[in-house]
Automatic annotation (TrEMBL), chain A:
Gene3D superfamilies: 3.40.50.2300. Belongs to the leucine-binding protein family. Residues 1-21 form the signal peptide. This is Amino acid/amide ABC transporter substrate-binding protein (HAAT family). Residues 24-329 form the Leucine-binding protein domain. The keyword Signal applies. Keywords: Amino-acid transport, Signal, Transport. It comes from Hoeflea halophila. One of its GO terms (biological process) is amino acid transport. It comes from the Bacteria.
UniProtKB/TrEMBL annotation, chain B:
It is a multi-pass membrane protein. The chain crosses the membrane at residues 20-39, 51-73, 79-99, 111-132, 163-187, 216-237, 306-326. InterPro entries: ABC_transp_permease, BCAA_transport_permease. This is Amino acid/amide ABC transporter membrane protein 1 (HAAT family). It is found in: Cell membrane. GO terms for molecular function: L-isoleucine transmembrane transporter activity; L-leucine transmembrane transporter activity; L-phenylalanine transmembrane transporter activity; L-valine transmembrane transporter activity. Belongs to the binding-protein-dependent transport system permease family. LivHM subfamily. Pfam families: BPD_transp_2. Its main location: membrane. Keywords: Amino-acid transport, Cell inner membrane, Cell membrane, Membrane, Transmembrane, Transmembrane helix, Transport. GO terms for cellular component: plasma membrane. GO terms for biological process: D-alanine transmembrane transport; L-alanine transport; L-isoleucine import across plasma membrane.
Length: 394, 337
């Protein structure tokens, strides 16, 4: 009797997997709790928007559907993120992972879970330069540019603003260190003096000591390479209150609507950079996201693109198996081929099934270089009238 | 003038922030030390109790603001404080009834109490997050933000360096002073306070003299809950309310209580200021202060920073270790740990 049951179960499994239309699961591994919990709902929703678009088109892998499965990367806790990824792969049987978000956990998940299981990962927001040369077996990609590039762009912005000296503080993790390093090197090469570079810990009670040291070192501006929900905000608040600095330079982790909302008018005049583009695709995507009720915030476009690339590569390979489609990601992302805008995923799927080439442009003008990371266009932002405004694109 | 500038600089970046932070730690450490003195265990749930109390204050503040009630130049949170204290007292007494009273009747070892308090901590943290969520909440957004700003001070004094004093910093120091004076008056002058000290010094002797232990415990919890709420609210007003940070605050609070001497209220206050000042003074960069003080145009090279700010937590722990090695009972002769 027991044997019969097992056989029946096996047969049922075989039958269902043999059917051509399947339900492809994609893991959505983002820090829904933790330092960037105010950004992740938008990022997750935007990735899932792409998945819904593909499912609804009915043209994906002979009418297959895509189901997102969420996992919590926590942004900071590598063990928790690896456990969540492990669950997505072994128990939810996802075919690929859209995520993770922060650089530290992304590196950990890549090494501990994705590589051993041979699962493709596309991160929308991990920006640490260290990930460029990480061993990845061709499984890891990102639609966000490396911070090595952001450092150059920030240094250009500082030079244009006529900044002569700056104090620099960064959050004490992979992202903060990598970014601070890159900012410092590029700024010094541009002749800007970095008076001090010191780290701060996130989630601590009091930042008077950090601000004291930064204020004594002095500088025209304070560069805060941290997180807007965490120590970065604490530092800015304390620096404003003591009158230590008036202008702050905000790299990507600090750009979000919640920062001006909670700091208030003191932040006006501060500026920064975040990955972004004014391409036609960005405008189209913003409209789509608005219609879907997604707030346009940091890394929302990158998220849509990351999810879209996963599914387009699957279609190009005709398989949802990571080993099959990992080599197709660069093909669908880059020229040659027909340009694909956001909202045209159905058309892209059709072209791919006819065996034609596509060049996915998407919301962020995707162009993957090197080991599979975005070349990167940046949006220079200015905090004006208590809101984040776009100064220009570079 | 140069000396005045150096003093203003030190006050702005060192003395004022350390005074406010030290006051918050002192209030927290007082609660920890009271529970330790009377119930004889380290209450790990104290940080989360602070978070719960602060949450109650925030909810009440929202209610008051919705009714259009405000407190003039002072933040509305101060009006809501009594309600927050009441809610926290109810929670603390309820916890004592369902958790700690059982262990007291069994005369359990302190370590069992300690582990129980750890469980209570997780319960409180879940409760707080369940009610108000994990997000950051700005407190004290009505009322005046500054007593005087750095710029106003510069114009008034004609110095090159300004001192900023936030309303919340002023309130924190004043409220701490009031709480500490009231507590000491209570412990030293009233019958209930004296019976508490007697119970803390020698439990058996106090029982023989007719001190009712349940009453002493009751008062201890009421005081601890009130202090936790005040400490949490002062902290939240000065910085921000985020449940996660209150858990992190537990560490410096315990360090303060132990450095001062566990069970000694004077020690808790002193410990709070020792920890706050040492964290900031050791990691402060003295370059500009020295530039003002040193004769002529001597400017020191480098930042003149003893330790980089990464090590500020190491500083409080080094002090803790040294105190435990040299004087295990703490600066003010509390119980040895």
């Amino acid at each position: 009797m027991k044997n019969l049951l097992v056989t029946t179960a096996l047969a049922a499994t075989l039958l269902s997997s043999a059917a051509s239309a399947e339900d492809v699961k994609i893991g959505v591994l983002l820090g829904f709790t933790g330092p960037i919990e105010s950004l992740t709902p938008g990022m997750g929703a935007s990735g899932e928007l792409a998945m819904k678009e593909v499912s609804d088109s009915g043209k994906f892998l002979d009418g297959s559907t895509v189901t997102p499965v969420r996992g919590d990367s926590t942004c900071v806790d590598s063990a928790a993120a690896s456990a969540a990824a492990e669950r997505l792969i072994t128990s939810d049987k996802v075919s690929a992972i859209f995520g993770a978000d922060c650089s530290g956990v992304t590196g950990a998940v890549l090494q501990n879970v994705a590589r051993p299981n041979g699962i493709v990962m596309i991160s929308p927001s991990a920006t640490s330069p260290a990930l460029s040369d990480a061993e990845d077996d061709g499984l890891f990609f990102r639609t966000a540019p490396s911070d090595a590039r952001q450092g150059q762009v920030l240094a250009e912005v500082l030079t244009e603003k006529g900044v002569k000296s700056a104090a620099l503080t960064y959050t004490n993790n992979d992202y903060g260190k990598g970014l601070a390093e890159s900012i410092k090197t590029n700024a010094e090469a541009a002749g800007i003096e970095i008076t001090i570079d010191s780290s701060h810990e996130d989630g601590k009670g009091d930042y008077s000591a950090e601000v004291g040291a930064l204020a004594q070192a002095g500088g025209d501006v304070l560069i805060v390479a941290g997180y807007l929900d965490q120590g970065g905000k604490g530092i800015i608040q304390a620096a404003l209150d003591t009158g230590a600095f008036d202008t702050f330079v905000l790299p990507d982790g600090m750009v979000g609507d919640s920062l001006p909302a909670s700091i208030g008018d003191g932040l006006n005049g501060s500026y920064g950079t975040i990955a972004g583009t004014d391409s036609e695709g960005a405008a189209m995507f913003n409209k789509m996201a608005e219609d879907a009720g997604i707030k346009i915030d940091a890394y929302v476009g990158e998220s849509y693109d990351a999810a879209a690339l996963i599914m387009l590569a699957m279609q190009a390979a005709g398989s949802s198996n990571s080993a099959d489609f990992k080599s197709k990601i660069m093909d669908v992302a880059n020229a040659p081929g027909e340009k694909i805008m956001p909202g045209e995923l159905g058309k892209a799927l059709e072209l791919l099934s006819e065996g034609k080439d596509i060049d996915y442009v998407g919301a962020t003008n995707v162009e993957l270089i090197g080991a599979g990371e975005s070349a990167g266009s940046f949006r220079e932002i200015l905090v004006d009238g208590g809101a984040i405004t776009t100064a220009k694109y570079r | 003038m140069e000396i005045m500038n150096a003093l203003a600089l030190l006050s702005n970046y060192l003395v004022v922030p350390a005074l406010a932070y030290g006051s918050q730690l002192a209030l927290g450490a007082l609660g920890v030390t009271l529970v330790y003195g009377i119930l004889r265990f380290s209450n790990f749930a104290h940080g989360e109790l602070m978070a719960f109390g602060t949450m109650a204050v925030i909810l009440m503040t929202w209610f008051l603001q919705a009714q259009g009630i405000s407190f003039g130049a002072l933040p509305t949170e101060l009006l809501a404080l009594p309600v927050g204290i009441l809610a926290t007292v109810v929670l603390a007494l309820g916890t004592d009834r369902v958790v700690y009273r059982f262990h007291r009747s069994k005369k359990s070892q302190p370590v069992i109490f300690l582990i129980a308090s750890l469980a209570v901590m997780f319960f409180y943290s879940g409760l707080t997050r369940f009610i108000i969520g994990t997000a950051d909440r700005n407190m004290g957004d009505d009322g005046a933000r500054f007593i005087f700003t750095a710029r106003e001070f510069k114009e008034w004094s004609g110095l090159d360096e300004g001192i900023a004093l936030r309303t919340t910093q002023g309130i924190t120091v004043v409220v701490t002073l009031v709480c500490v004076v009231a507590l000491f008056w209570f412990l030293n002058r009233t019958r209930a306070g004296k019976s508490m000290r007697a119970y803390s010094d020698n439990e058996d002797l106090a029982l023989l003299s007719g001190v009712n232990p349940e009453r002493v415990v009751l008062i201890a919890w009421i005081l601890a809950a009130a202090l936790a709420t005040v400490a949490g609210t002062m902290y939240g007003l000065d910085k921000t309310f985020k449940p996660f940070i209150y858990l992190q605050l537990l560490l410096p609070i315990f360090a303060s209580a132990i450095v001062g001497g566990l069970g000694s209220p004077v020690g808790a206050v002193a410990g709070g200021f020792v920890i706050a000042f040492s964290e900031i003074t050791v990691t402060f960069a003295y370059k500009r202060v020295l530039t003002y003080i040193m004769p002529g145009d001597n400017v020191p090279d480098g930042l003149v920073q003893l330790l980089s700010t990464e090590y500020k937590f190491a500083v409080s722990f080094v002090i803790l270790v040294v105190v435990l090695l040299v004087r295990p009972t703490g600066i003010f002769k509390g119980q040895s740990v």
